[in-house]
Amino acid sequence: MTSNMSNPTLFDADYKALVMGASGAIGGAFVAAFQADPHCTYVAQVSRSQSAGFDLLNEASIQQQAEACRASGPYHIIIDATGALTIDGVGPEKSLASLREDTLMKNFHINAVAPVLVLRHFAPLLASGPAVYAKLSARVGSISDNTKGGWYGYRAAKAALNMLLQTAAIELQRKNADLRVVALQPGTVRSNLSQAFASSVPHLLEPAESVTGMLSALKSLTPKSGAHYVDYKGEHIAW
What we know:
CATH superfamily: NAD(P)-binding Rossmann-like Domain
Mean pLDDT: 91
Number of domains: 1
Helix content: 25-40%
Distance between the termini: 31 Å
CATH architecture: 3-Layer(aba) Sandwich
Radius of gyration: 17 Å
Structural class: alpha/beta
Number of strands: 6
């Protein structure tokens, strides 16, 4: 990869990409975007439907998948598009009275613990020099932006995820100052995840529209200490 000292750019030379959650609406749109980019020479795809035995709730399977992907690396960009809004058929809680311990714990496991374990095992597959590790987060994970309340488990898990990404970014950048770790807010996208809430959204994004915006945002980010937290429009979100 070439490097510009003031703003190392990821996409001006050949690169390899890896997409976690590649069978989902947003993950699939990322795969399609990379496959359409002549600079992208290879796209690795990881998902429950495409990767035998892969299970986000099983760290051993995460480690095994990372080892399986190692031979095709190193990767200049890794996208983790995994996550869940509805847990075991239970959607976001609207009140304290609706909280359930088992659902809260599983929400944290899927949306915070599993992603940082993915990062732990896949970070060694990143290329040296300009590189990006991006994880889908959510605007509701912003503590300072919470003015409506509700959605206890999902909000808290995404806030925890953001802290984990920030902490990991600081550590990983000691070895590679050109690495950008990013918490990405994709907007509300037409998908199975948003289906139950789509009717109340003024502008529901198509997956390709969201991914186009997120890739544009990623291209504009400069290296800095710690993680970025941005939306699909390229606007920074307050932690």
